[in-house]
Structures are given as structure tokens and as C-alpha cells.
UniProtKB/TrEMBL annotation:
Protein name per its UniProtKB record: HTH cro/C1-type domain-containing protein
Domain of life of the organism encoding this protein: Bacteria
Organism per entry: Prosthecochloris marina
One Pfam family per UniProt: HTH_3
InterPro entries xrefs: Cro/C1-type_HTH, Lambda_DNA-bd_dom_sf
Alphabetized Gene3D superfamilies for the sequence: lambda repressor-like DNA-binding domains
Amino acid sequence: MKQGDKPERAVVKLADAVGISVPYLSQLEAGKRKGSLEVYSAIARVLGMTFDDIA
């Protein structure tokens, strides 16, 4: 993802790259749902981070 992306666009790109829906990603970010280890690992990978970085 590019740093210049608008926040809404970045969320859509992240959700697409991870293979989850935008509403699901938003719920994860807000703490309204808990994701699986696989989802969090995929988010970290797409962001170029480790699981420990986002845990």
C-alpha cells in the first residue's frame, strides 16, 4: 500500500489483500470482533510487520 492513499482506500486495499471484508476489518480495528490467528498474521504480513508488532 502507498503512504499517500486516502484512509478509506487504504482500508479497502488492506481488506482485499487479506481476503476479508471491509466491515469485518473495521470491526477488528474497533475491537468489536476477534479475528483468527490466520487473519491477524495475514494483516501483519500485508503491512510488512510481524504478528508480534500488531499483537
